[in-house]
Design goal:
By secondary structure, the protein is of the alpha/beta class. Helices cover 46% and strands 15% of the residues.
Length: 265
């Protein structure tokens, strides 16, 4: 099985993301079956700060979709969207014939299966708000305890892959608060925080509550959806859900809008 992991970072295009990318590859390979091949890649460019705004993330979504379309062309069996907001999730499920997994989507549903209430641990209040909206979009309100914000900036999470001891204590403090409030499963957002635990030999629970490895969870969900598809059970192709436009309409659409596919500034 060939798995394409499309991260929203600039891994493979920016040398400053090499350490993070290599750790991410190790996480993917550890989670995947022995006969699965995982290819991890990012996007060509990224402007810091745009993740705070849905309008500006349009540019990032476009790059993510280009990567995922490439994955299908190159014969991969499944695409995993390794972006905290699952950007391009609905669009990719419509456009591609292979299964598409969202990292947030898969972690929400697995958390609901293995515990009672789950909490999201993150580093920014705007991320917490986006996740509140995603929880509603995915219909998971009854299993969602809440979002807990720690004081580790995202840039420090990324740098912390090289110096994990510097950020562990603060994360554990907030995690323990969530568990005391009733969380039985914890989800880390964005995913680099779990990379620190991975480097330290893994951390699977906090005071009895399960701590999900968001990357491993998405990889296993990808393998599962491929196996379901082989049994004849694909994502719904009902119009308005993930109805496929088909290759001919996609080709005509790309040709029609190609010359104007930009935003003037």
């Amino acid at each position: 099985m060939r798995i394409w992991y499309q991260t929203g970072s600039t891994y493979r295009y920016d040398l400053s993301r090499e350490a993070y990318g290599r750790t991410l590859e190790e996480q993917c390979k550890r989670a995947a079956r022995s006969d699965s091949e995982v290819y991890v890649t990012g996007v060509p460019v990224s402007q810091p700060g745009i993740d705070r705004f849905k309008s500006l993330m349009y540019y990032h979504t476009n790059q993510m979709l280009n990567g995922m379309i490439r994955a299908e062309k190159e014969g991969y069996d499944v695409v995993v969207i390794g972006n905290s907001y699952d950007i391009g999730f609905d669009e990719a499920r419509e456009m591609l014939e292979i299964p598409v997994v969202g990292i947030a989507h898969s972690n929400f549903y697995v958390a609901a299966m293995i515990g009672e209430l789950f909490a999201v641990l993150t580093c920014e209040y705007h991320i917490a708000e986006r996740y509140r909206q995603m929880i509603r979009r995915y219909g998971m309100e009854s299993k969602f305890l809440g979002t807990y914000v720690h004081s580790i900036p995202e840039i420090e999470l990324i740098r912390g892959v090289e110096k994990p001891d510097a950020v562990m204590e603060e994360f554990k403090r907030v995690a323990e608060k969530a568990v005391a409030d009733g969380a039985s499963v914890l989800i880390c957002v964005p995913a680099p925080i779990y990379a620190l635990f991975y480097q330290r030999g893994g951390l699977s629970s906090v005071n009895g509550a399960t701590l999900l490895d968001p990357v491993a969870t998405a990889i296993k969900m990808g393998e599962f959806l491929v196996e379901l598809k082989e049994l004849g059970m694909d994502v719904s192709r009902k119009l308005g859900v993930y109805g496929s436009p088909g290759k001919e309409l996609l080709k005509k659409t790309f040709e029609t809008y190609g010359p104007s596919f930009r935003i003037e500034h």
